[in-house]
Amino acid sequence: MGSSHRKKSRDVARSSHRAPLGTVVARADDRERAFLVGLDVRTRRTGVGTVTAQASAARDAAQMSAGPSKTRKDGATAVKPTIPEFDADESLAELRTLAESAGANVVGEILQRRDRPDPATLIGAGKLEEIAGASASTDADVLLFDHDLSPSQQRNIEKIVKRRVIDRTQLILDIFARHARTREGQLQVELAQLQYMMPRLAGRGVEMSQLGGGIGTRGPGETQLETDRRKIARRVRHVEQQLENVRRIRAQQRQRRESAPVATVALVGYTNAGKSTLFNALTRAGVLSSSKMFATLDPTIRAVNLPSKRKVLLSDTVGFIRNLPHTLVSAFRATLEEVQRASLILHVSDASSRLSAEQDAQVEIVLKELDAEKKLRLRVMNKVDLLDEEVAASLLAARDATNTVYVSAIEGTGLDVLLDRIDKMIEEDRISRIHLRVPQKEGKTLALLEARARIYSRKYTDGAVELEADVPESVVRRVKSYVTG
Asked: What pLDDT, on a 0 to 100 scale, did the predictor assign at position 101?
């Protein structure tokens, strides 16, 4: 790389232990030692700064979901507030969290800034030589790139650094493999891994010579990484057939659920937004909730009682992430069908994050890919307990008619408002206010109303009970002989 080009490229080198690059950080445990490599590519310049292509697409998606721009009284179009974008440092911080979720010990990191990616090595040969020295000085086992690498780029990098190289997609696939518990989840991860592996068989790199152990090499499937294309294609067909059987069984289960007037509410959101914590708070299900990314992989469905005493089924789903690999979206389509068929989507966001708007925009991209972007939706801003106390109190006290509810799932605050808002938005088994006169001897009918209706008044006259109640349509049909108005 020429000296003039190096002048244009600014880089940031850091070590997680703040040790000099020439110092070998002692091994504290048996975890793999990972060295992170980030790339900040500036693709378009505007009057207010530089904008990356991915951030631009995400902001466009968010603005489309927000609706059309409003026109002021003077005839000018009001400008929407700028959505903060992931900058290179925050993107690298997210990669660090991903690496830790994969079980790695991050020993160093380098951020390279360039006008455009290098087609051969992504970051340039000169910078790669520097990274080779830095990773050797920290005794790193693997280099994790915050970018997708082509097969040729991966091979070229490995020839220089003499270490395994894992890109962002392969790292995410590895985390999914760690967290898959059910047979369905394992099949979905294996399919995504096989589809990722297929174009990388020719001229296998360092990671393809590993038969197991380490980030990017583990997986629930039976396929060894040394298999040929024909064997992988055969395995792909077999896994797809098994997933089709899973999809058929899931469709049958859904059909049985839909035969009863019970609505399904799906939780979606950026990974680590607190979906599983909220799910546990609403259902007391005891689902694993963790600060690690993609702690929830296998879907869970539980019943929730609403204030009207109707029941809805709440579905917890896998978290989304920026640049979520398309192979994962395709492989998990059977699981994500719960989102497509839901009556209401609860979009959970991290209210304490500066990047919540950008994360929401990334969720919009995935929902659009699932053809679910037009579904009835309620925005749930979680983690308000991490905000300033006065700000959190004012948000929790707001009970307006907007499509946003503020909660703290971990503290249980704001959940009554959330349940009330869900109750008002659900159309299945509609509620109607009726008056009834039920003989006192009809104990089963009175017990049914007590369990399934919200009773506002009760009066005993001449051996009967006169009631005023909000009653679901399914119950009204069973007690219609006692309805007086």
From this structure: 85
Checking if the pLDDT of 175 tops 80, the result is yes
Assess if residue 256 is contained within a domain. Answer: no
Residue owning tokens 């801003």: 381
Q: Which is higher by pLDDT, 124 or 298?
A: 124
Within 10 angstroms of residue 393's Cβ, the number of other Cβ atoms is: 13
Rounded CA separation 34/78 (Å): 47
Check if the beta carbon of residue 410 is closer than 8 Å to that of residue 350: no
What tokens were used for 310? 């109707």
Q: Is residue 466 domain-shared with residue 396, that is, in the same domain?
A: no
What is the distance in angstroms between the CA of the first residue and the CA of the last residue of the chain? 84
Among candidate residues 261, 266, 232, the one with its CA nearest the CA of residue 473: 261
**Dihedrals phi, psi of 477, to nearest 5 degrees:** -60, -30
CB distance 57 to 167 below 8 Å: no
Q: Which domain holds residue 31?
A: 3-70+83-166
A 10 A CB-CB count for 259 gives 8
What is the pTM assigned to this prediction? 0.73
Residues 332 and 229 grouped into a single domain: no
Residues β-bridged to residue 362: none
| Total number of domains constituting the chain | 4
Contact of 6 with 126, CB cutoff 8 Å? yes
Q: Which two tokens stand for residue 111?
A: 């951020």
* E runs forming strands in 222-285: 263-269
Position 27, amino acid: R
